[in-house]
Amino acid sequence: MKKLIVNLLLLIFVVSLNSCATIFGGRVSEYQRIKPLAGEPSRKIRGVALVADILLFWPGAIVDFATGAIYQPDKQTEAKKANTNEPITL
């Protein structure tokens, strides 16, 4: 019984260290990684992932912002890549 409790606590600890947008958000596009220049529109944030990061384990939000996974991908850029059959580079 004691081993089960320790394993369960360890599992909860490991899961809580993960960031939601990095794990569940899919691939991070170039649009998400590059910071917009002055005069360019800012990137939109995935609200659900941000709230989940804050409620579950706030350092996960730091990881999501550092990787760019917290930002929504650009729909127009993704559609153009899908139509032109260009390879997606990361």
Short précis:
The chain is mainly α and 90 residues long. Helices cover 59% and strands 0% of the residues. The longest helix is centred in the N-terminal third of the chain and has 15 residues.
The radius of gyration over CA amounts to: 17 Å
The main β sheet shows up as: none
Number of strands: 0
Low-confidence stretches: none
Write the layout of secondary structure elements.
Blueprint lengths: L1 H15 L3 H5 L5 H4 L13 H10 L2 H9 L7 H10 L6
Task: Walk me through what this model shows.
By secondary structure, the chain is an all-alpha fold. The protein has one domain. It is built from 6 helices and no strands. The radius of gyration is 17 Å and the shape is elongated.
Q: What structural keywords apply?
A:
90 residues; mainly alpha; 59% helix; elongated
